[in-house]
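agent> fetching stored inputs for the iron/sulfur cluster docking request
agent> found them:
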Amino acid sequence: MSGAVKGWCPGAHRPMTAADGLIVRVRPPLGALSPETAAGFAALAARWGSGRIELTARANLQLRGVRPGALEALLAGLDALGLLDADPATEARRNVVLTPFRDDARDLEAVAAGLAEGLADPAFAGLPGKFGFVVDAAPGARALTGVSGDVRVEGSGPAMVVRPDGAPTGRIVTDAAEAVALALALARWFLAAGGVGPDGRGRMRALLATGALPPAALVGAATPDPAAPPPRPGPRAGGLCVAAALGEMSADALERVARAADDALRVTPFRMLFLPRVASGALLGDVAGLILDPDDPLLRVTACVGAPDCAEAGGATRGAARALAPYVRPGSHLHVSGCAKGCARPGPAPWTLVARGGRFDLVAGGAARDAPAALDLTPDDARRRIQG
Ligand code: SF4
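agent> prediction call returned; pasting tokens
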């Protein structure tokens, strides 16, 4: 991901530069695309980019391989589809992840829309680029506990609560408007309480860890619902989850998904799309790069783009990940990273291979930046270690 600046969130207005061209990240409003919009987005990816679309861990879509000279035309196309914010600042602040598994029981789309609208206020201009909101209040269980966020709107039994990240409990709210008002009030408190450091960065959890406490009117004692297990591809209550192998799908595959959809496609932070009201993946079974089987070995591997698409990479990654996937035991996971930055999985994994000079260093139970347990492995060496 060369060209990205730490602590700064790229978007459509501020693309990143990589060895294979510009990366243009799009935040679909409410994390959803109508079938027509999804098909239009796929056409833009094929026309102005390399046709490769990445699904990110914050439920965004990234177009790869965009030529600098094509950016203006691509942005015009995104604007025509309603996928472009008015300006870079508005785009950067609209950092809201909405659970894809919402139903009509709570008006969570109104919460997410209200947050996006409220965040356009210049009063929030000082929020760090990574400061985000997670709307995870579908009844029953929280799906997004693994998604980074600073203010969380969650379920608590029959109620909805708003909680600053880092606090174990939150305050009960009665409706979407109250949830938005309280979440934005917590963001205002974060700014006023000195949550942003001199370098422009800061997180709610870190601020609370200093002992800072929001005023009593912004906190509460309600415990959020338990965490749901990670979703798996295939049918589930309310629709169908379609995973993208290694987090990437082709423009053709997205166009096929759009044709199979019955309603707006929801982009998830699990490198999957969720198709409400679609009961079966029969229409998608033959589409390369899509995963509908929850036991597919490719779900046990993660890999960044590696060489040659990223200039930082010490070697290719995705071929090794595909080749090694069948040897990763169920319940385990292998992360193949092009370098120690570990973009595809910043946290630890049971196994991490880090490319270096065309070979791999192996980290056991750590992250790509951690000390390796073995150096200079070939993929065959790595397979024996992972199996053994
Ligand atoms: S982890 Fe992968 S994508 Fe990120 S900088 Fe390294 S090689 Fe590039």
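agent> quick read of the result: The radius of gyration is 21 Å.
agent> awaiting further instructions
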